[in-house]
Amino acid sequence: MTETAGPTPGRNPAWRLLARHLVFPLAAGALCVLGFAPFYFFAAPIIGLALLFAAWRHSGSPRQALLSGFTFGLGYFLAGVSWVFVSMHTYGGMPAIMAAIATFAFCAYLAMFPALAGWLAVRLAPAPRSIARVMAAAASFTLLEWVRGWFLTGFPWIAIGASQVPASPLAGYAPYIGMYGVTLVVCGCAALAMLPRRWVWQGIAGIVALFIAGALLRSIEWTRPAGPPVKVALLQGDVPQQLKWEEAIRTATLDAYRDMIFATDARVAILPEAAVPAFFDQLPPQYIQALRDHAAAKQQDILVGTPERVPPGRNADDTKFYNSLLRLGADGATPVFRKHHLVPFGEFVPLGFRWFVDAMHIPMGDFDRGTPDQPPLPAGGTRWGVAICYEDIFGEELVQQLPAAQAFVNVSNDAWFGESLAADQHLQSSQARALETGRWVVRSTNTGASAAIDPKGRVVSRLPPFKAGTLVAEVVPMDGMTPYARWGNVPAVVLSLVLLVAARRLRT
Questions:
Q1: Are 279 and 136 within one domain?
Q2: Are 452 and 494 in the same domain?
Q3: What is the pTM of this model?
Q4: What are the pLDDT digits (tens) for 258-275?
Q5: What is the pLDDT of residue 13?
Q6: Which strands make up the sheet holding 469-475, listed edge to edge?
Q7: Is 339 a catalytic residue?
Q8: 419 has catalytic annotation
Q9: What is the number of structural domains in the chain?
């Protein structure tokens, strides 16, 4: 009798399917996070997406591609944005188990976008291992990432395109087609790597061409200096989030920021988001007057991040509450920018979720929106476009302040996320905005990352995290409009749709 060997796990199609459509996509999603700050390994997302597209290329049904896309998304977002657990548990006071469940649910929601991209790619290009399939994969992934950026107010955090900023040659596409356009180019490189074997050399040539073109595009200048440099002081108070709103800390915080302002001779002094731990009208009048007198004497403009209520008046039902950045100027005026794009659960309460905000114990968690068409803030002879907190991850909204804005200022308080990846990822988003707009971007934050970024998206200088300090930088006001500033996300979306239509019609 001849004895036959039983099946081994390595030869079992079930194991191969499990690895290809679950294990590899999960690892590929986590790998992509290495492309973002503080790692800046810009090749990682190309490799990770190539692994995902390999799974989609072999998918036998849209449902199978949906599953592998969802698994990729879980790996991507659990590795990339699980810092929301820190916000909810460490600083929000939510029980650890409940915060972990909420974090997983949030990441699972975000994972639905690459899942739907996989379903769409296989649905439109049913032939496996085809050029049409990988073309549809690149286009559908980009399109669904764009949808993630606006659906239900949007959450475009760690958009793939931002992983190429600032060093990758592919970042050269940013002033033309924005971060979603760069996402499409990154997906294009991953798709070219997954072409059928008979097209392998064409795929390599295509990847090389995309990198060369991106490098050449970086040399083109779309903006120009509009005046002499402006000396700016970025103040980082390093006030612990768990102590920030305590009465005993308030006076010490106010005194510390006043002393930092008085110590700098910069033309513009910038305080972080909600640096003032009270409504502006609650501050001691003598404190405000001291800042005004200093501004007048030193010809200095002071930008103050503060909660604001308007009016503070008699009928509480008519009072509006804003997350604001206002200027105490040498001219005695007090122009203000009020945050428009609010953070769900942190700054406004979505319908039916009041219980969630109460569980997090977030103070002042229900702000009003500023108008979307606010003019730039004048300070130091420069017109400053403003983004408060995560408003600067929405490039299509920031460009609405152009061409009037000559530079951008972002004030943030990422202390909510502790010593996680959040602050560095947020900094990289500001670097992306600098590239897209051809403007300097300065960031004043409570605990980091406070930094000055040039129009090429390079960090010129920054303060170490979790240390109080003042960063002084020379910022050049800029005029001119990049193509992205004129057209926004339209070219990236149109290109993605054109590729999807072409993939649908292509039969190879």
A1: no
A2: no
A3: 0.93
A4: 999 999 999 999 999 999
A5: 72
A6: 336-338, 320-328, 301-310, 268-270, 230-236, 469-475
A7: yes
A8: no
A9: 2
